[in-house]
Design a protein that fits this description.
By secondary structure, the chain is mainly alpha-helical. The protein has one domain: minor pseudopilin epsh fold. The chain has ten helices and three strands, in the order αααααααβββααα. The chain has a three-stranded antiparallel sheet with strand order 2-1-3. The structure holds manganese (II) ion (MN).
Amino acid sequence: MNMTRRDALKHTALLGAAAAVAPGLLTRAETASLPGAFTLPDLPYATNALEPAIDTKTMQIHYGKHHAGYVRKLNAAMKSVSGTPSLEDLFKKLDEVPAPVQTSVRNNGGGVYNHNLFWESMAPANKEGGGLPQGALAAKINQDFGSLSAFQEAFSKSAGSVFGSGWAWLIVRESDGKLVVTSTSNQDNPLMTSVVKEEHLGKPLLGLDVWEHAYYLHYQNRRSDYISNWWKIVNWNEVERRLG
Ligand code: MN
């Protein structure tokens, strides 16, 4: 399922469709003028909208520097890749990416995908953020974990246990369709076929960035406080939409 360049642009444009422009940062329109098919989607809220769980300065640097950097470096690496594969296609066939840029496509492609998903997985606490999962998502969490609190405990433990930089994930496992908690190092994710063990492969519904750049300015070494506050801004409606 190869995406055309036009489709890739349309896809990233859709990701940012409902967005308010974050002041003082690169906008989607600005990054769209840079060479390459992949663009930085607008944030779906202002950079101060997730306070106090995630502070404004962290959001500005995380989005405007780190995420933008992954987009820029991915586009540079993609000059050595033929065609215009989507990120999902690339993750399935990383071992076919030309050797000189394979690591860059893995790290920066993961960085782009993971952060796109991360921003969309959150919402201000006084809007869609926080609360409880509803409907089919709530039912499936209860079915596969026993209860919401059992799931949250497993997820928080996974996020707290990542050694160094990485992500915690809730996925629909490819092999059996069950909801499973997992984690990856660096910018790897559960779609990377040749990277992740089979029992950890699946469709990501929710991801938590536990790189120090995601929390250190405000929380310093208190990653567990970052994780517990993050639950207050999870956008469960978006997670349920991904469940499909
Ligand atoms: Mn990050």
